[in-house]
Design a protein that fits this description.
The record marks 92 as: Stabilizes the basic form of H active site to accept a proton. The active site is at residue 19. One of its GO terms (cellular component) is cytoplasm. GO terms for molecular function: peptidyl-tRNA hydrolase activity; tRNA binding. The protein is of the alpha/beta class. It has a single domain, classed as Peptidyl-tRNA hydrolase (Rossmann fold). It has helices at residues 21-32, 69-80, 113-122, 142-146, 152-173, 178-188, and strands at 2-6, 38-40, 45-52, 55-62, 87-93, 101-104, 128-133. A 7-stranded mixed beta sheet has the order 2-3-4-1-5-7-6, with helices on both faces. Helix 1 (21-32) crosses helix 5 and helix 2 (69-80) packs parallel to helix 3.
C-alpha cells in the first residue's frame, strides 16, 4: 500500500492557507479521481482508501493540527504495516519561493513542526517528501504569515505546483524510481 500524506490544519478556518498547501495537493488529487475523504477517528485523520492501477493507495490528511501530524501517520503505518519506502509527504516550506518544489528522499525538518513531529514519532527521517514553497514575509510574524491565504498572483504559482504534485503522485504510485522523479521536478521548478 502507498501512503500519500498532505500536512495541514483541519477546519474551514485554515482552508487554503499557506500552511495547508499539503492538504491542497491531496484534496485536488482525490477530487480528480472522483473520490472523497472520510474522517476516521481511530487514526485521527481524514482518509481516502482507493485502488489506482492495481495499487492500494491511501491519501491522508491528519486531523490533529500540524504540530501533531505524526500521530495520525504513525497509527496508520503501524496498523497497515506500511514501510517508510511506501510513504510520501507533501508539506509547505517558507524557505522556497512560492510554488517551487524540492523533492527529497530524506532530510531534517528544517524548522517545520509537522515534519519534526513526524520524524520524532517514526524515529526516522528516511521518507520521501515534497516541499512546496510558500515564501516568507519578514514583515509579518511567522505564525500569522503561514496561516494567511495566498494572494491571486501567488495562487497561479501554487496551482502549477499542485499540478506538478499530481504528476509526482502518479509516478510514485506507478513505482517510478524516486531519483528519476527528483531529477525531473527539482530541475523543472
Amino acid at each position: 500500500m502507498k501512503l500519500i500524506i498532505g500536512l495541514g490544519n483541519p477546519g474551514s478556518k485554515y482552508h487554503q492557507t499557506r500552511h495547508n498547501v499539503g492538504f491542497m495537493v491531496v484534496d485536488q488529487y482525490v477530487g480528480t479521481i472522483q473520490q472523497s475523504f472520510k474522517l476516521d477517528t481511530k487514526f485521527n485523520a481524514e482518509i481516502c482508501l482507493t485502488n489506482i492501477n492495481q495499487e492500494k493507495v491511501m491519501f491522508v490528511k491528519p486531523s490533529t493540527y500540524m504540530n501533531l501530524s505524526g500521530e495520525a501517520v504513525y497509527k496508520i503505518m503501524k496498523y497497515y504495516d506500511i514501510s517508510l519506502e511506501d510513504i510520501i509527504v507533501f508539506v509547505d516550506d517558507i524557505n522556497l519561493d512560492t510554488g517551487k518544489l524540492r523533492l527529497r528522499l530524506s532530510g531534517g525538518h528544517g524548522g517545520h513542526n509537522g515534519l519534526k513531529n513526524l520524524i520524532g514519532l517514526l524515529h526516522s527521517n528516511e521518507f520521501k517528501r515534497v516541499r512546496i514553497g510558500i515564501s516568507n514575509n519578514p514583515n509579518l510574524q511567522l505564525d500569522h504569515y503561514v496561516l494567511s491565504q495566498f494572494g491571486k498572483e501567488e495562487m497561479i504559482d501554487i496551482s502549477i505546483a499542485i499540478k506538478h504534485s499530481q504528476d509526482i503522485i502518479d509516478q510514485f504510485i506507478n513505482e517510478t524510481p524516486f531519483s528519476d522523479i527528483m531529477t525531473r521536478f527539482n530541475t523543472q521548478t
